[in-house]
Write a structure and sequence with these properties.
It is built from four helices and no strands. With 94 residues, it is mainly α. The chain has one domain. The longest helix is centred in the first third of the chain and has 18 residues. The model has no long low-confidence stretch (mean pLDDT 76).
Length: 94
């Protein structure tokens, strides 16, 4: 790869990369998260194609999503509550 915008790569490979990144965000981004909002608001041209710098936006979004998962920042509220409770019901009252 000569250019970081993938312009030197065959169109089908660029399309595959974009599709893989979009599918990963769609699969892993929690509902109502900023990652989901970025995914849902990606600008699309009238012919159905995405803008030229899309791969940079997707790469940044995936990197941040990965970091949040690795740092435990995307746990559900239920998991956070269970994590702060003791295993026995009466131990929290003592």
């Amino acid at each position: 790869m000569k250019y970081d915008d993938f312009s030197d790569q065959p169109e089908h490979e660029r399309a595959e990369l974009i599709a893989l990144m979009l599918a990963t965000i769609d699969r892993l981004a929690p509902p109502h998260s900023i990652y989901r909002k970025v995914f849902e608001k990606l600008p699309v041209h009238s012919d159905g194609s995405y803008f030229a710098g899309l791969h940079k936006t997707l790469h940044g979004t995936l990197s941040a999503l990965k970091a949040d998962y690795q740092n435990g920042n995307l746990r559900s509220v239920g998991k956070l509550i269970r994590g702060n409770c003791s295993p026995t019901p009466t131990a929290d009252f003592l």
